[in-house]
Design goal:
- With 289 residues, the chain is mainly alpha-helical.
- Helices cover 80% and strands 0% of the residues.
């Protein structure tokens, strides 16, 4: 059950990533930050590839696996762009729950596409708990500026949709590929997309004005992202997608704890109930799914 431990570690590192990234985009443009942290993730990923000795298997990857790895990387890039744009203009405790709604779509797609129908009633009930919990966590009563709410919400929704597609594409593409190598290939695609967006928007001039302290946080978020990805794609390659995904999304617990400590963002009673429902749904999926 090593894949289960990897799913838990993936959640932990993903939770830290959000906080570190939020610290790194207070002044820095979110597109620039995404492109820079992807460089760190790519370096981290290829170091792991050479450590495990899977670099020599790259020529053995078939065209179908490569195509889906590229699609996974492209959807990851789109998800990142949306997510960090939403984080730059919205509260962590509001953006993250919407992003985590990708869990519901990922689980349903895993059931349909991969036939993960064992204990189906439990999975569907657990997914319903997750959906209701996510809805309750999207707390709007403290949002005084409606324009800000409208601004970050589409980006958060886009992040969730692309994140769900990322998981499905990755599961197909990584089935016959060593997980660390698959992660490195995907990251290369993300890097290309991130920098294309930077240059397409003419933001490359902002690179010389990046705050050094924020650059440190961006780099650290890249390291934790790399660690999270390596754990996550090992878990979905060797485990059950409809179980791994909800566990990974429990990174929200880590995020909320640190957002309270670092940013002093508190949960309302409604949002707290939503969080408890998400935890219950995830535990049920893990134990009986």
């Amino acid at each position: 059950m090593l894949w289960l431990l990897m799913a838990v570690l993936s959640a932990f590192f993903a939770g830290l990533t959000t906080i570190l990234a939020k610290c790194g985009i207070k002044k820095t443009d979110s597109d620039i930050a995404t492109a820079l942290r992807t460089i760190v993730v790519l370096i981290f990923s290829w170091i792991m590839v050479f450590i495990v000795g899977s670099a020599n298997t790259i020529t053995q990857i078939d065209k179908k696996s490569l195509a889906f790895l590229v699609l996974s990387g492209a959807s990851t890039g789109a998800s990142w762009i949306c997510y960090f744009k939403a984080l730059s203009i919205g509260d962590v405790n509001k953006v993250v729950p919407i992003d985590k709604s990708s869990t519901v779509l990922s689980v349903l797609l895993a059931i349909i596409l991969f036939g993960e129908t064992n204990n189906l009633p439990i999975k569907l009930i657990s997914t319903a708990f997750l959906a209701v919990g996510i809805f309750l966590m999207i707390d709007k009563k403290n949002e005084s500026n409606k324009e800000i709410r409208r601004a970050w919400l589409p980006y958060a929704v886009g992040s969730a949709v692309f994140a769900a597609l990322t998981t499905i594409f990755a599961k197909i593409g990584i089935s016959d590929v060593e997980s660390n190598l698959g992660t490195a290939i995907r990251t290369g695609v993300v890097l290309v997309i991130a920098w294309l967006i930077v240059f397409a928007k003419g933001k490359q001039k902002k690179l010389k004005n990046i705050d050094k302290k924020e650059l440190v946080f961006i780099s650290l978020s890249g390291v934790t992202t790399g660690a999270s990805w390596l754990c996550y794609y090992y878990a979905i390659q060797n485990g059950i997608v409809s179980v791994v995904v909800p566990i990974d999304k429990m990174s929200i617990l880590v995020t909320i704890i640190f957002s309270y400590v670092v940013f002093h963002e508190k949960l309302s009673k409604k949002a707290l109930v939503g969080l408890l429902l998400m935890v219950c749904g995830t535990l049920a999926m893990t134990v009986w799914g």
